[in-house]
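Forum: Protein Structure Q&A
Topic: Joint prediction for protein chains with partners

I've read a bunch of threads here and the consensus seems to be that you should model interacting components together rather than docking separate models afterwards. I'd like to see that in practice. Below is the full input, 737 residues plus whatever partners are listed. Could one of the regulars post the assembled result?
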Amino acid sequence: MHIHKYEKWWLVFGTGTLIAFLIIIGVSAFHSGTHPNNSKWTLDYEKVDETAPFDNPGVHKVEGKDWDYEVVLVASAFSYNPTEIEIPVGSKVRFIATTKDVIHGFEVAGTNINMMLEPGYVSEQITTVDQVGEFTIVCNEYCGVGHAMMYSTLKVVEADDNSSHK
Amino acid sequence: MTTAVTSKEVKQPKLQKAKNSIENEKIIKVDRKDAKLALAHMYVAFGALLLGGLAGLLQVFVRSGAFQLPFGIGYYQVLTVHGVLLGLILTTYFIMGFQFAAVSRTAGPLSNTQRKLGWIGFWVMTIGTVAAAAMVLLNEASVLYTFYAPLQAHWIFYAGLALVVVGSWIEGLSQILRYAQWRKENKGQTSPLLTFMAVVNNLMWFVATLGVAIEVLFQLLPWSLGLVERIDVLLSRTLFWYFGHALVYFWLLPAYMVWYVVIPKVIGGKLFSDSLARLSFMLFLLFSIPVGVHHQLTEPGIDGFWKFLQVVLTFFVIVPSLMTAFSMFATFELRGRELGGKGAMGWFKRLPWKDCRFLVPFIGMIAFIPGGAGGIVNASYQMNQLIHNTIWVTGHFHLTVATAVVLTYFGAAFWLIPHLTGRKLTSKMNSMANTSGILWAVGMFIMSGAMHIAGLLGAPRRSEYSTYGGSEQAAEWISYQIAQAIGGTILFISILVIIGVVINLLWFAPKGEEEFPVAEAAPGGGKTPAILENFKVWGVILAALIIIAYTIPIFEIITNSPVGSTGFKLW
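Posted by a regular:
Agreed with the consensus. Here's the joint model:
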């Protein structure tokens, strides 16, 4: 099969670029650990309220872990619990979330905190909140008639209290 | 007669070149009975375009914040109409109609059995469409065209969509039978390229739709009928996306058929390389399917390793598109220089910019460049977190399927419909068609551009107008939503112009003969290697890739599965 000389160059260049992209995202994922939500944690979605940690949704300061705060969040049609989250800037946070009914989204708008919440599964993501401001958390997976009314707020505040972060 | 000419075109390009002028004079027509079958598909496709486009117009109006739907019609009901009619009905009907015409034109008329199968498939699809549409209109199925469980539609909605798929299988089978007949009658020869391409697209469709067929038959139907109480949600989504990404290639490949085989003839040039065209289609067959998990990158329950493996396979499917891009622009440059274009870009000016059969698909080709680049971003594993389920994604597929693909379909319809009805595309209709293409480009630049930017700022897709409790971020999104309404309005005007042209070509254009353009291979391409037509070899590789990409993830989903979900009707 005859392939034109320029086409060979073009394909070598194009495929080379794709391989470079793959190496970059691969190293970033498997070396630096920047995976999207891959959690394997399951529960009974009909018993979320009785299952730890979802029996106590909210922001929890933790000690002796790789992160400073755990945000436990429960989604249901058409709201989030809690409706407001406040965290000092610079903290490392582990978001732990699930749903009590259908599929919902959990997206901190304008950031890369973004995961699907599916019945029976817990979704998790760890991040450092490094920017002060108010971020809207939106449901980004269609869940029914009240879908666009479903939101919460993440407030990243100045760390005036020294004990609140390391 | 048809078959003899076509096989020679492919087999002996040098000889054929000498006879060129004679052959070009004669218009090879699609068989009249086959033309009827193809036309039936066009009626449904363009009806779906008009209604689906109207639904889209209502959506952008609602999202601008300045308009509310009357008569208790729901936003998500309209969104379901838009997605089902344009994503599933317009595309499937156009593709099948086009492929019937292409097979009949290049491999010869269908046998009576093959044509009968075609009609059975058409009616099965149409009964399914009507059933699903009725459920959507009755507000029993506002589950969007992806119908994710545990939102539960009426079982008739799922059964209707299943019939659409089954009907398309019967039609695909009819086309494959015609190809098999040609191979039998022309042993050892290279098959007509367009027929070969239609066969590859059908085979890909068979393998891909198995996923959604299993989801509907074994999960959604028994569950919505109340035979079983619970459904494995993650498994249903994984089966859906096994099908869902191949679906976009099912849309794209007919556009590539037009780009590879029709456009070169329209501009008066030659097919760049028969072998490379076939190779790129075989690569699409291999890599369209084992990549669906890249739609599930932010979901729990699937291991990072398997997600990344499918990301790698997704990147492989970009290679045949790179090959296609090269072939297209090589064809354009060769032809432009033949017409006397000089210098680095002089050839570009020589292309037939006033011919809608060229201009409209060309606009589509240009849109595929940013569309493809955006697709690479979406598939890039952790980068997906920034844009997943934001309106960036909607902006992305309005460049790919809703510009590159459909403008190519429209550009093809502008000669295909008069070819089938025995009429002529007049110069007035030609300039109306060009106007629609330019309007589409302008409208889509505004709408898709605004969607991309708003998506980066975090605006979610598939959501009606909301201020999110007075959030500052949401206020920023709304200005882009107004831009989307402006772009969407221009697009709807373009749709009206297109419908006007189509009506003219169906019933009012002057009688005459419009060519079905089929390019011949450029000289010096050599004989096409037989391996490219050995479906057994490619089938084995395809099966191996699917088994590697999906066995362990699906095994883990089943063994690790939590208690299943009951149905919810939250609309």
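Residues 1-35 of chain A form one domain.
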